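Sample entry follows:

_____
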Amino acid sequence: LIRIAEEVDIPPQNPAIKVEDGKVVEFAPPKSGRAILQDETIKLIASALLERSLGKELIKEISLPVAIKKPIGNGSNADFGIVELIGKATTPFTGSPVNRIHNIKNGVKFLSGILVPPGEEFSTVGALGNIDNSTGYLPELVIKGDETIPEFGGGLCQVSTTLFRSVMNAGLPVIERRNHSYRVPYYERDGEGNLIGPGLDATIYDPWPDFKFKNDTGAHILIQGYVEGDKATFELYGTADGRKSLIIGPETLKETPPPDTVYVETEELPKGEKKKIDTAHPGGTAVASYKIEYTDGRVEEQEFKSYYRPWPEKWLVGTATSTATGS
């Protein structure tokens, strides 16, 4: 049994954290270990042999009882309370343009390593800071008023949406969240790519709207994000306090078809030439319920109701008579 235990047992790995200027610059996540319960296993073996000696049922296999060992914080990570994973979420962005993918990776990088002190409200817009070419962002489409136009940082709503879902999975209170003006297909699937419909997106734009949550756990929370393939992931590390969270939905309450196609004349294109600038999106209303159950019996509930405008397909139609076009 001791020999078998040497092959099966895995010691827990404590988290390792290096903090510079209030931000985590190096982080090794905690990993749970396992160990065979040797005394219990010996009893199971003895019982099986006794049954055999009495001519009863021949037991040929025994399931080894194993204990899961959680890592124990030490040093700086214990001071912060960063000892285990408390929430995680992944969202896909399959089919995104090159600039959008670049901006998603850049935004995830800026939020990774941030420590949220206990009792503090976290602002996504505030944490991202300047969103322009000086911080490495590229022009990509954003929803602004009645238009979808290229601006620096287009695609960052993938970052805020992923963080929003990880916060709910961790059971943290959502302070501020707003849905997009129209339905965006990227945000209507779960981490496995399964269709879930609209209602769990969170849009951001400097200075508003913002996505905010509160750390009410009593310990620091570490935000760690990464991009693998065509998926973005956020992991929240801290100290689990036994709370449970439940997300019901999203449920689409109403759906309205997109309006008729819109044609906009422009002298930027030769006469008769057309250029598609917007895709049609159906409108509608969706709702999702979010519940947090604390160990002291308290229950906090939030309802996220989202209204999406029906969005027309839009085309530019050229009117310039000259063969030269505008830039």
